[in-house]
């Protein structure tokens, strides 16, 4: 896995992080990646260190309005980043009746991968610089995080100027997407990682930012308690009815779109069919060493898990999903 391994496993070796890591439960993931269990979730050492930096440095108080996009890995992060940044780029219609795409402004997705437009706080922004200057970013600022709701800063949770959008996907497709994604970072010599072993880890919650259901339920409960603060979107609903979901997202972001025509333009310009064929997304490495830009766009469908799951895998994840979500009011239509 080369560069990914170096990026994931290394820290600054400061006494603080070294001491913390020495006290935490540890696991190996995909043969060579180190994971540590901190506050109920698994982290690469480098990401744990940047998470701590984020928690002591990030400020969402005061006059700056922030939007935080949040997700479990492989649940539609790239899509949500594209949509949110595109919507935030819209301008108010001259007659005041909503927001439109300003065709005089260059399409931000033509020159930037969605992960460059909206950076992941603990995986990018704070990874190489523990005290980044975020004050120059114009308000409203748009960030992303894979962190669980329980470890988000109180200032994010309590600020009335800060809103959260969480995207979720059914666990079956999430797992298959994660398996493909991690395989894409392996060398030909390493070959494909055994799906059975990856599945075992996923079901046990041992993967980056896992366990899956704790992550989902943290944001789900908050979206029930405070729907104006936390918007909860399902990947499958975006696939089924993108127009309706994009309209809702735009309104939540304070940029209600002026017409169905504008909505359709946003839907198409952020679609996987368009994005995966843009030069900017086809070549080169992403902001994460060892992961190509193109690996964030695969097929983007619902139900690909059926091409890989045995009946035992299906039953096991079905039962885990049922028992984990029982009484929560959340369910997945797993097609
Ligand atoms: P698949 O591997 O099932 O194709 P994340 O962005 O959280 O890393 O999730 C990646 C998954 O979202 C991949 O799923 C990828 O193909 C899909 N995806 C990326 N961009 C998308 C888009 N614009 N529309 C729909 N799905 C998209």
UniProtKB/TrEMBL annotation:
Domain of life the protein comes from: Eukaryota
Alphabetized UniProt keyword annotations: Transferase
Taken from the record, one Pfam family name reads Sulfotransfer_1
Which residue range or ranges hold the Sulfotransferase domain?
66-328
Top enzyme class? transferase
SUPFAM superfamilies according to UniProt: P-loop containing nucleoside triphosphate hydrolases
Q: Which family does it belong to?
A: Belongs to the sulfotransferase 1 family.
Spell out the protein name for this chain: Sulfotransferase
Protein species of origin: Macleaya cordata (Five-seeded plume-poppy)
